[in-house]
Amino acid sequence: MPQEVELTSSKRNYPKNRESWGSIRERGKRLYASYVGPDGERYQAPTSYTTKGDARAWLTEQRSLIEKGKWKSPKAASAEQFGVYASAWLDQRTTSKGKPLAARTRAEYRRQLDNGLADFKDMPVTGFTPAVVRAWHSKRIKKGATQAAREAALLRAILSTAVEDGILEKNPVKGHMTKASTGITHRPPTTEELAHLVQLMPDEWRAAVLLAAFGGLRLSEWRALRRSDLTLTDGRYTVDVTRQAVRVPGEGWHVGPPKSEEGVRMVTLPSHVTPALTEHLARHVGQLPACLLFEPKGHGDFIDDQRFNKPWTEARRQVGVEGVVREHDLRAFAGTTFAQSGATMRETMAFLGHSTTTAAMAYQATTGREAELAERMPALPAVTSDPLGTVTPFNTASA
């Protein structure tokens, strides 16, 4: 058996001395780190190292976890079932800004854990390998590419925490698994298509389409609007977007702020939609400030998605864009046309309620105006002489 030598310097076979915390031993040409945990047990690093710096870095990380009270016994971690770990992860999960997850997001994560990720419920967290995940993803993608991508994204997020906790060395869920291509290309409607869609919608729903297409409001936002949220000034309506209404399965309606802090915003609508909104307020909205712009029927607190989707689907079918233009693509129409009108990126982000340029760009589309935009580029003036005084006529028309 090779002799084990504890190291305290960059030279190997140095006289025995302990590390300030933990120990590093040499076996052959590899270094092995270990430490005594709070439970009195000695724990080895999950891998060997070629440099003392790497071994020390692992020891430093373990000591930091202990000092912060976040250390978990590797023995306990290896026995912890994914279902238990995932439930705890969901209970503790917050947004990037440290706020609790939205009720609908939490419910959707729970649904994914109970369905697509249920295969892993009783498996130890340490049992995840690229091969295990690959086999699962191959099976799930046959059920639906979009749903498989969402489930993979959730699994990747949970296992990223497991990596941070020291349970796994690497995340076995590859990034490409979280992206889906269904083969269906969605796009915002053209101006002509939108005009026909508005015309074909029942009178009570035309204002909803206009609010989405020219105000960039989400369905969850426009269905929560009250009469008091609209103000008419100088022939234009401004919309105070301060809340959304979301129906969570098994819990009912949740009313709260929009999707993000930036979602709370004041939107100014173009004057050409003023007559339609004024008519909607007169014909379909009660006179009290708290009256909803889109009143539910029956005992519901807000209009259900299906009440809008039925006439919306029929209108799209008649225009020939069913399956191509979704309700959410009206928001993309708003973002695209607002940017094309000359808005800066910051103004577009504020208009849509986005905090990042990436999110704002996702709601902008090309519209086939390449020739028109190209013609707006300035032409070169005729050059009469170069800096040296030599006459060099330049005809931009024939160039």
In short:
The protein is an alpha+beta fold. Helices cover 40% and strands 10% of the residues.
Written description of the protein model:
By secondary structure, the protein is an alpha+beta fold. Strand 5 and strand 6 form a beta hairpin. Strands 1-2-3-4 form a four-stranded antiparallel beta sheet, covered by helices on one side. A three-stranded antiparallel beta sheet has the order 5-6-9, with no helix packed on it. The longest helix is centred in the middle third of the chain and has 20 residues. Helices cover 40% and strands 10% of the residues. It has three domains: 67 residues, no CATH class; 102 residues, DNA polymerase, domain 1, CATH 1.10.150; 171 residues, Intergrase catalytic core (hpI Integrase, Chain A, Orthogonal Bundle). Belongs to the 'phage' integrase family. It comes from Pseudoclavibacter albus. Keywords: DNA recombination, DNA-binding. This is Tyrosine-type recombinase/integrase.
Lateral strand order in the biggest sheet: 1-2-3-4
- Which parts are unreliable, with pLDDT below 50 for 5 consecutive residues or more? 1-17, 391-399
> What is the number of domains?
3
- Give the overall average pLDDT: 84
Largest sheet, described in full?
Answer: 4 strands, antiparallel
Silhouette: elongated
CATH-assigned fold name of the largest domain = hpI Integrase, Chain A
Keywords: DNA recombination, DNA-binding
Domain Tyr recombinase: 184-378
Organism: Pseudoclavibacter albus
Domain Core-binding (CB): 80-163
